[in-house]
Amino acid sequence: MSMIHNLRAAVRPSRPSRLSLRKDGGVYDATRPAEATTAVVDCAVYRDGARVTFERNLTPHEAIRQVRRDGGFVWIGLHEPSEAEFAGIAAEFGLHPLAVEDAVHAHQRPKLERYDDTLFTVFKTIHYVEHDELTATSEVVESGEVMCFTGRDFFITVRHGGQGSLRALRHRLQDDPELLAKGPSAVLHAIADHVVDGYVAVADAVQDDIDEVETEVFSPGRKGTPRGTDAGRIYQLKREVMEFKRAVLPLVRPMQLLSERPMRLIDPDIQKYFRDVADHLARVQEQVVGFDELLNSILQANLAQASVAQNEDMRKITSWAAIIAVPTMVCGVYGMNFDYMPELRWKFGYPLVLGVTVALCLGIHRTLKRNGWL
Fold first, then answer.
1. Using a CB cutoff of 8 Å and minimum separation of 24, what contacts does 14-18 make?
2. Is the pLDDT of residue 350 over 70?
3. Mean pLDDT over residues 320-336, rounded?
């Protein structure tokens, strides 16, 4: 079975360890609520593709000493660490202060940077928010961030946001020792592939929302004319697509570098599989750019339909005003208090005026209706 096939295999059910590392080097129950844990989610030593077990959970300092003495690499996972919580780890692994600042404060663009013997990679995770009906305030996508520090014998992930947990990914890699034996670069590839696969799923879901809005805009309403939809819904969907776009487009260049440029920290066998990730990302990029352009067209079409509907309403109002103007004029003329007016004292004058008024109104109505104004 090929390495990339193993990496994409479904996650096999596994029982997560109930013991995880605490800041003071002790352990806590991983089944407790998130608010009861520290920033360190997991700290593990991997050697020859297998997780090394110890009598107790190691601190990052102890883990890296084990690795540098016996070989392998250490993978430390953190979730929204504070500066104080991350300072010790940064000093232990010699992380660059600029990368540490980015990792702690988050809100970074996807990027790839090299600091001495460390690669710093930023990924934006995107999660599709399920909703029964798209409204002008609906949240369609939710974003998070995963920062990765890749070294010769260590891999550190710093995750921000409530989505994008890497627990299942860690278990999946542990089930594939052949792949995990390639070292930290294999973990970096697995995370990149995991993030981009998430983009693919979100793109398919957003496509359904856009199709729904497009159908509503162009579906026939009364008298066979397009009934349109609320412009606020289209604009909200466009804003959510823009957030998606900000996650996808900046990541294209880093994936190209990882797949094309030789790097000391990236295993040559693993680098080949970054091309697959780059290809999937390019497809998502095309979709997202297409979403943005399509939503622009839908919004313009919806506004044009609103203008057409307003023009039709104004034509109808104008037509009825023209019809009403006839009896208004006749009544205005014969409402003047003059003694000598034509047919004023003729016994057929009143029905004649009414008949002429009705005939004129019916003639105007028929003409306007034939011309499509009514």
1. 14/171, 14/175, 16/167, 16/171
2. yes
3. 82
